[in-house]
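Notes, p. 3: input format for complexes.
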Amino acid sequence: MTSYLFNNYQRKPFELVSGKGVWVKDEQGKSYLDLTSGIGVTNLGHCQTDCESALLEQSHKIWHMPNLYNSQIQEIVAQKLGEKHHFLSYFCNSGAEANEAAIKLARKASGKSKIITCLESFHGRTYGAMSATGQKVIQTGFSPLVPDFQNIGFNNWQDLEQIDQSTAAVMLEVIQGEGGVILADKKWLQQLQKICWQKKVLLIIDEVQTGIGRTGTFYAFEQYDLDPDIITLAKGLANGIPVGAMLGKKKLAAAFGPGSHGTTFGGNKLALASANAVLDYFQENELLKEVQAKGAYLLQQLKKISSSKIQDIRGKGLMVGIELTFDQPVEKILTDLAEVGVLALYAGHNTLRLLPALTITKKELDFGIEKITQILTQEY
Ligand code: PLP
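Output follows (380 residues plus pyridoxal-5'-phosphate):
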């Protein structure tokens, strides 16, 4: 069949047409345990009932009005996201857009342009976010990039010297997701924070993948005793409805006055109704404690697998990477897993990445662990 789509995605030859919780079905009716959450998006599971009700209720009222008018739902969600850490919110539609907003805010508020990001980082595919991304493979063919981005090594102490008074901001993920589930060293992050304070440099934490409970705290930075000036969110915020958010400290507000930045769909009422249901779910349940316990269990069980294909296993909460040896292409392992009814992801360093819904049960996790064990221990 002739396709009228650009070929920019490498797609598996089946379509997932329905889903509930952590289970999805393809067009042939085959069931899969979804350990991807649609790349860390459906954190509360597919077609989650609270989000579904909120979406239905909002769909009967009004779907869209632009940011020319007050928005009660934006106020409510912004308060829930920002109250604890004194953040103001700006809503957009994706992680890349949230990072664009962060970059713009940091440059305008500081009056400086240099932004330091990390090698192997991923911040999105728009021009600013791509220029911030520390992976040549993402940038090749798209020059000239946005100027004044500089990369330092992740966890590299010596490179911290590059943060100086001419730097507007340092922007990083505390766990590099696309880069291969690479965890930052807590002491290194704290030193970086200290230097940012000393040199009057803004700290931006990209929580697009790590945020909304993924690592066992609502924001991953909370586990590192950091106090970022700006954070960015997207993926899990509305459990599958496109949304992004840039949160920044009140001291930065003057740089983002009327007319400074905006987007037509930002803060869309349907998206924010779903986001509100997600945030209520966290308030009403002990989900973060469960994520910590389930994440520890998952890591512990995976580490018991005895397989020469495994190079390393690492993660935090329900964000886990299994780095494979170079002779075991992760794509082949993903295909084999799909065959036996499990969907997983790849990431940098030939890493099999697991981002299950935070609501996954122990029994469902056990099913996934059993299938992963089967595929990683089978002989060809
Ligand atoms: N930042 C991080 C840490 C991400 O993992 C991603 C996407 O994977 C992005 C930004 C880009 O988000 P989006 O694809 O919604 O633009």
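Residues 82 and 88 are 6 Å apart (CA to CA).
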